[in-house]
Amino acid sequence: MHDKAASRGVLVTTSWFDKASADFAHRNGRMQLINGRNLKALLKEHLNRDVLIGLPKTPQGWLPSDIQ
């Protein structure tokens, strides 16, 4: 973002972000983080696609339905 003088950045993963990543994005104020659970919901909402996200383990606080 700094190199391109971007006013905003979006980082998307099928996995999850740890607390340090979330804290950094919050402090920065110009970054939006989209984890696998949110990505799944966005794909369902906007494309009507119910996708399966394969992870080796279910992240803490997630339900199996968040990835299946």
Mean pLDDT: 87
**Structural class of the secondary elements?**
alpha+beta
Shape: globular
How would you sum up the major sheet?
2 strands, parallel
The total of beta strands comes to: 2
Helix content: 25-40%
How would you sum up this structure, described in words?
This protein is an alpha+beta fold. The protein is built from two helices and two strands; from the N terminus they run E-H-E-H. A two-stranded parallel ribbon has the order 1-2. The longest helix is centred in the middle third of the chain and has 12 residues, at 36-47. The chain is globular and about 35 Å long.
Question: Could you give a quick summary of the protein structure above?
Answer:
This protein is an alpha+beta fold. The protein has helices at residues 19-28, 36-47; strands spanning 9-12, 31-34.
